[in-house]
Write a structure and sequence with these properties.
The chain is mainly α. The chain is built from six helices and no strands. Helix content is about 60%, strand content about 0%. Helix 2 packs antiparallel against helix 5. The radius of gyration is 16 Å and the shape is elongated.
Length: about 130
Amino acid sequence: GQRGRGGRGGQGGGRGQGRQNMRFPVQNQPPAPLPGGAPPQAEEANPVALLAQQLPSATPDQARMLLGEALYPLVDEIEPASAAKITGMLLEMDQGEVLLLIEDNGALRAKVQEALAVLKAAAAEEGN
């Protein structure tokens, strides 16, 4: 599976459009609890509900990007060394399952451990 590699490009090549530009205004403010500079009370708003609203109208590439952006920081907290690879692996799952992982930290930790085991097994096979 190299399928997870191209998730960032999208139609505009991902350069200078949308995502990067969103980050600049945030840097002048004190660190915000959520990327994008959302006010603290937005943390109580369920990010999963917000994602679930956006996904049906998104293209598969956009949906993958939205889920990846929500999932990556969570995976990065658990396993920084392999966060990008594990996020890519988790994004191969069904959207509903990925939303569940974003919501349920325990389930996410279990899946991250599972993904790590798969990566270790793959590395061991490559070594033989």
